[in-house]
Amino acid sequence: MRNAQTIAIRIIAIALLTAAIHCAATQTAKAQSPQRVIIDTDPGTDDALAILLALNSPELKVEALTIVAGNVTAPIGLDNALAITVLANRCDLPVAQGAQLPIHGKLTIEPFWNGPNGLGGAQLPANRCNADPRFGPDVIIELVHKYPHEVTLIPIGPETNIALAVLKDPTIVPLVKRVVLMGGSISGGNVNGAAEFNVMADPEAANIVFNAGWPITMVGLDVTEITLMQNSDVAELEKNAGPEAKFAAAVARFQIGLYQGTGFGGGAIHDALAVGAVIDPTFLTTKSLRVDVETEGRFARGETIANRNGTIDKTIPVGDHFETVGVIEVKPNVDVATNIDAKSFLNFFVKRLQSK
Ligand code: BDR
Ligand code: CA
After folding, report:
1. What is the 8-class DSSP label of residue 131?
2. Is the pLDDT of residue 21 over 80?
3. Which helix (H) or strand (E) holds 154?
4. Which CATH number, 3.90.245.10, 3.40.1390.10, 2.40.110.10, 3.40.50.300, labels domain 33-289+333-353?
5. Whose CA is nearest to atom 10 of ligand 1?
6. How many angstroms does the Cα of residue 168 sit away from the middle of ligand 2?
7. Where do the structural domains in the chain lie, given as residue ranges?
8. Catalytic residue from among 104, 149, 270, 321
9. pTM of the prediction?
């Protein structure tokens, strides 16, 4: 009888051990398998660099590019994205057209910052891959349901498509792994004193995305404007350059000239940092903060306003006035990138595209 008990205990112990080993193996496999990402983009110079970085990074599995109006109109953005996929030999990648206009108000595009074709005059192959017939936000919804808890969204344009996806199907929110977006700033804007372009271009959409309740990393101007490419980086990129590196170098040279012309010490490649942060979050220092999007205001529409102390004053009406009687805690909703190892990131970026 005691023998039988011992054998039973041993069998259970072996079964538990096997299950634990299997679980650990699955976790390791998961940790090693590439991360599924959807890049929502308005290509756009730095968007093009971000897409090429993602497509040349084995840590990522780009499931789709969804196109939004921003740097350029949505049709030009789609055309550019399709040409980039030809350049990268990736006609298998779904590229779907998305929103043509912001949720509210008029579209702003940026020919000054992106050149006439949206790519700083850099040339892409004349032929195009075929666009996916689905609407961008629907592609996002479908992929998030297909791979629950696995998909990281990388919005690098105005957040219209992401907001439309959430409005149409809020059940995607808890199923998204993370949102790592290029947009916003907690230290002043680039379109004016307050607002960063992607948020300013559709503040209502950004407001929806920032308040959806999913984990967000905000890769904003606070880090992208201190990560400036130099001609020496481009010279590295041009060593043994294939078609992708040649194109990236042409775009980067345009960025450098443009930014130096407006007072910067090199070229900002904003969107590539959001992709880099998904590949290796250690490039960034982040701080968990409450961030609100200004959707009104005379000077500050589109500003992302961070609460440094994590509290707001509690005021109550007393007679004909208000009185502060304490503070109320506010919950952080965003991991804000506050610093970056810019040199490491730029080296990494160059290495990933070198000889491609
Ligand atoms: C952002 O706006 C666009 O100009 C860039 O592509 C980037 O996404 C920077 O403010
Ligand atoms: Ca962009």
Report:
1. P
2. no
3. strand 151-155
4. 3.90.245.10
5. 197
6. 23
7. 33-289+333-353
8. 270
9. 0.91
